[in-house]
Amino acid sequence: MRRISASRSLGVTTLGAALLSLASQGASAQMSCEQISTETLGVIGVEVTSKRAVAESETLPAHCEINALTAQRVGEDGWDYAVNFQINLPDDWNGDFVHQFNGGNDGSVNPATGPLLSGNRERTALGRGYAVLSSDAGHNGSAQNAEAGLAAGSRFGLDPEARSFYGYKTVEVLTPIAKQIIHNFYGDDPRYSYGVGCSNGGRHGMVTASRLGDAYDGFLVGAPGFNLPKAAVQHALDVQQLSSLNSDIQKSLTDEDRLLVASAVLHACDALDGLEDSLVSDTAACQATFDIDNYVCPEGQTDACIAPEKAEVLKTIHAGPMDRKGNPLYSDWAWDSGIAGSDWRFWKISSGIPPWGGNPLIAVMGSSSLAQVFTTPPTKVDGTPEELINFLLDFDIANDGDQIYARRGKFHESAMAFMTPPDAKNPKMKKFERGGGKMIIFHGVADPVFSYNDTVNWYNRLDENYRGEADKFVKLYPVPGMNHCAGGPATDDFDLFSKLVDWVESGNEPQAVTASIAAGNGERFSDWSEDRTRKLCPYPQVARYQGGDPESAESFSCE
Ligand SMILES: [Ca+2]
């Protein structure tokens, strides 16, 4: 069994080491929450802003909630910055640590309960007795709200250092701090340390595995935005293409249009896994088989077929953005029946949120992020729905897409450099692998934000680097039909965190994982039972029907 001590991580980052060099010797017994103050906690550079003892509730155990900050500074843009964080320390501690990586632009301290991902929001690390850390990744996303409107969440991108803190520095700084707090509070180091997150949180996990290879024992990584700046260029392509169908993007593709595409995908691919169950489990075979042109309306027909201009737009979107030489700026995308999911609509077509003008998330958060964080030099954008969608419409993909690689003046790191794992193009995660670390990744095949294919290509390169044995330390679980992190016509409730822990702590390599439909996911197709279960299989295995109850995972095996 592997023990991680705080002292082992001290060499990981000079900043973190400096902050801890004068840290107090830990107490020998558990402190009480009432005792906690900046002084008694005794971690140099950390200021406790509040603490409270939280009583046991239906979902969470009794714990001490500590809110604190570190790394205070004034940015080059004149705004005050700090890393704000919350750490929750359960009275009945299981001895281990979970770093909760948050999503989106970060910018707020989400409660440190440690959601263990998938569609089940009740399943938390704090609920299981872990000490859990959450942070705002070094900026307050609402601090500039009055001035920046809808662009407030990414306005921090005008400050070079805030970009780096968002990308990777916050995790470098907070990891040793959290371990020191745990040590000082409980009188003991955490035995095992985990990182858990989806989307931008999944990105944090992969970046941390690459940069801080020996600071964590395991990562649960969902829908990783490990190439987030590239995906932001895709937003421009999506909006430009969809706007060519209708100047009001919200009317570009209707629910019926997307359902027609899903039906076409099912027509071509559903049976490839051995069972017609409105679920495409053999994703790879489907990509080789499906051709949307086979479902395009012939002249004179408008019913039960896909309009030719809509098929062209979807083909262009699925091909991904290209530079002026025709080289990919991001990735292609998998065709999947989950395109019918409402989360797909929310990201790309319409949100229904009035202050956003109803525009989709990519035209709000996505647009302001591309303008202010992921391109260099940044473009300060006004936070109105019109300005934001216009930025994407006007973005010259072919000529300016490479701004995600640009450095200039005080912006000495490119967006790709601060946002992606340093070895993203040729992944090895050497230190993590050598230290015995394990990673489980899951990705919805119908994720509208981050391309599932991009994750598969990354995994295949990792596997080449490990001569076909990357699965000894990294497993990828595709989730057919699932949208971004959860949702869509999919079995989107699964407990991969327990599999990760069992792998890290007991050496039990995860295989098939049973998934069900999350409570509250009302998007299953009409021919599914609500208690359908399916096997999720580690890539490149596929869940194939063996006979028996078509609604039960037991009728499938991973092959
Ligand atoms: Ca099927």
Written overview of the protein:
The protein is an alpha/beta fold and 559 residues long. Among the domains are: 6-91 and 105-111 and 119-191, no CATH class; 229-252 and 291-334 and 349-419, no CATH class. Helices cover 30% and strands 14% of the residues. The protein has helices at residues 14-20, 38-41, 145-148, 160-186, 200-211, 228-245, 255-269, 283-289, 308-319, 342-348, 365-372, 385-394, 397-400, 415-419, 430-434, 452-465, 496-506, and strands at residues 47-54, 63-74, 80-90, 97-101, 131-135, 193-198, 218-222, 438-444, 474-479, 513-516, 533-536, 543-545, 556-558. A nine-stranded mixed sheet has the order 1-2-3-5-4-6-7-8-9, with helices on both faces. A two-stranded antiparallel ribbon has the order 10-11. Helix 1 packs across helix 4, helix 6 (228-245) runs antiparallel to helix 9 and helix 6 (228-245) crosses helix 12. The protein is globular and about 80 Å long. It starts with 13 loop residues before the first helix and ends with a strand. The model is unreliable at 1-27 (pLDDT under 50). Calcium ion binds at residues 270, 273, 275-277, 279-281.
